[in-house]
Design brief:
alpha+beta; 13% strand
């Protein structure tokens, strides 16, 4: 007998593969920090470097991975590249992770 309320995701292997692929790309601490820094904004590479506190080279490598996995989108304006989260649903996922894992230190 089928249970109601089961996640539809488990019924489709390709959806599970796509979810695992995206979660693996986001699971690196610096990449997750980049996603949190970008949030609903569009930031230049230098803005992201300033937010996450590491080298531009390191940030650029992780931005490339997030872009390749289609988690981030980019655009060029003259000599600057700007990044934004590609899908609003990813923003909802990041917000849920904040709710679950980020505690208010009182």
């Amino acid at each position: 007998m089928a249970q109601t309320g089961k996640l539809d995701l488990i019924a489709f292997d390709n959806d599970i593969e796509r979810a695992a692929f995206a979660l693996k790309a986001m699971s690196h601490p610096l990449r997750l920090k980049i996603l949190c820094a970008v949030g609903e904004n569009e930031l230049s590479v230098q803005d992201i470097v300033d937010c996450v506190g590491t080298t531009q080279s390191n940030v650029s490598q992780h931005l490339a991975k997030l872009r390749d996995k289609e988690i981030l989108a980019s655009r060029r304006d003259a000599n600057r590249i700007y990044y934004r989260v590609n899908d609003e649903r990813t923003l909802r996922l990041i917000e849920m992770m904040r709710e679950v894992f980020c505690s208010d230190k009182k």
